[in-house]
Design goal:
Nase/OxRdtase_comp1, NifE-like, six-stranded mixed beta sheet, Nitrogenase component 1, 22 helices, Rossmann fold
């Protein structure tokens, strides 16, 4: 589907990709098969439309506005205006901590993120807050002289219908810098990934250089979050330079996106919109390949980068060298991890990559949880089907689940599979696993498992936490979970979806 940059409002993932946030536990191959139907609308493959299971309440999640905050708010020489009640600014604390750690990992000057909240109140909900927004933009300019100003909407501004576009256009003319409206109200989309798309949509419309001064044939855009710099050592072997975006980039880095030779990422979920837009609007090819996880995925990824950038020979040399380098260490890790059962609980495409690495290490993966599922990605290409790739190359996952970070469901999911450890990135679920006696590998650095070295990194991290498993088992003995006896006895984590919010005999 061609992206529409004539409007400031991005289409949600539900509209574009058919994203769901709940699906019965089943085989990964079933979800992969039925996703093809949802994507193509064709019954010839024997699949059926995805049936979305959404519970009667939500215990834990995030929202699109927060994703905008942790992306646009972390462009180093720009400012983010949160046009929202002050409560929407509480996540600035967590985002700022992540930002500072990311800068340290990249060996960049450590600073705080720059975000201004307009502090919408009850009177503003009645009389409007456009003047507050104008004043906040003027304050941002006077205090920081940024090279761009992003405006994030909120549920409050969506409810009262604030005319953000008009204010942005007025202030852009006044200060002669991009002033970018991003429509990311929490209720606009079921899943927070639409927030990534809102930021990337704004960047494509108003920051990316429309008429590139020159094509930089050795520059590769890497769409990422806050992870350490693992792509430079990889791509430099092919004679390529890295342009990291969006987090911790500068406005200049964003401007030159249209000049790159190609675009890659560590995760199709994060990169889908921006990569497709750069290809469609500016002719920068997206590297359409499996994600760089495990040997099979990384091999295919490196070869496709080599093909797109005309460095096929260097790619083959690098692949051969890395295979020799890691062979003995991976075999050693396989022996140490033989018989262990792992469980990945992260965002969708990232979880698919982690499953590949676990199976590469000889770890049994009987179950996995993804927080949402995209039946397809922008630039709909079969080579980007990360779920099908892991099933075809590493085998099925019998207990594959989609649930939007719901703790009460996570308990049953883990109980039914009984893994030796879990891998997780997002907060809120690891403590529950620990209380069940299951240790967690917390991947705060999302690049930790990328590439050939990532297989070794993850294997060593798993051995490290398994050495501390007794602590979690002791914790289990002394902690009471905050659920009724009725719920602790349930085997079906989706029973409330089937029976509604009221279930007889559910009390103690």
């Amino acid at each position: 589907m061609k992206l529409d940059l004539d409007t400031s409002v991005v289409k949600t993932r539900e509209e574009r990709l058919g994203t769901i946030i709940g699906w019965k536990t089943g085989r990964a191959s079933e979800l992969s098969r039925d996703s093809v139907y949802t994507c193509s609308g064709c019954k010839s493959n024997g699949g059926k439309r995805l049936c979305e299971n959404i519970g009667p309440f939500t215990q834990g999640s995030s929202c699109s506005e927060r994703m905008v905050e942790c992306q646009a708010g972390e462009v180093r020489d720009a400012i983010l205006i949160q046009h929202a009640p002050i409560g929407c600014g509480t996540s600035q604390i967590a985002c700022n901590s992540i930002y500072r750690n990311g800068l340290k990992n990249r060996k960049l000057p450590i600073e705080n993120m720059k975000v201004i909240n307009t502090n919408i109140k009850e009177t503003d909900m009645v009389f409007g807050a456009d003047k507050k927004l104008e004043r906040s933009i003027e304050d941002a300019w006077e205090r920081h002289h940024p090279k761009a100003i992003f405006i994030a909407t909120s549920c409050a501004t969506g409810i009262i219908g604030e005319d953000i576009d008009s204010v942005a256009m007025k202030m852009q003319k006044k200060f002669k810098i991009p002033v970018i409206p991003m429509y990311c109200e929490g209720f606009r989309s079921k899943h927070w990934s639409t927030g990534f798309d809102a930021v990337q949509h704004g960047i494509l419309r108003q920051i990316v250089r429309k008429n590139p001064r020159k094509k930089q044939k050795d520059l590769v855009n890497v769409i990422n979050l806050w992870g350490s710099d693992v792509f430079t050592p990889i791509l430099s072997k092919l004679g390529l330079r890295v342009n990291y975006v969006v987090d911790m980039a500068t406005v200049s880095d964003l401007e030159q996106l249209s000049e790159a030779a190609a675009t890659v990422s560590f995760c199709h979920t994060l990169s889908s919109y921006l990569a497709a837009g750069l290809e469609q609007q500016f002719g920068v090819p997206e590297v359409k390949a499996p994600q760089p996880y495990g040997i099979a995925g990384t091999d295919a990824w490196i070869r496709e980068i080599g093909r797109v950038t005309h460095r096929e020979e260097k790619a083959e040399i690098y692949i051969e060298e890395e295979h020799r380098r890691i062979a003995a260490e991976i075999e050693k890790l396989r022996k140490s991890l033989k018989g262990k059962r792992g469980y990945a609980a992260t965002g969708s495409a990232y979880s698919h990559g982690l499953i590949a690495v676990l199976k590469e290490l000889g770890v049994e993966v009987d179950g996995s949880l993804v927080f949402h599922h995209d039946p397809s990605y922008d630039n709909n290409d079969p080579k980007k089907d990360s779920l099908k790739f892991v099933v075809d190359n590493y085998g099925d996952v019998p207990n594959f689940s989609v649930s939007n970070r719901q703790q009460y469901q996570f308990y049953s999911l883990l109980k039914n599979v009984s893994p030796d450890f879990i891998i997780i990135r997002h907060g809120g679920l690891a403590p529950l696993a620990s209380h069940m006696g299951i240790p967690a590998v917390p991947l705060g650095d999302e690049h930790y498992a990328v590439g050939y070295q990532g297989i070794i990194n993850l294997g060593e991290a798993i051995l490290d936490i398994l050495a501390r498993k007794k602590f979690h088992q002791d914790l289990k003995k002394h902690v009471k979970l905050p659920y009724t006896r009725w719920w602790l006895q349930q085997k079906d984590p989706y029973i409330l979806q089937k029976q509604g919010s009221f279930v007889e005999n559910r009390s103690e």
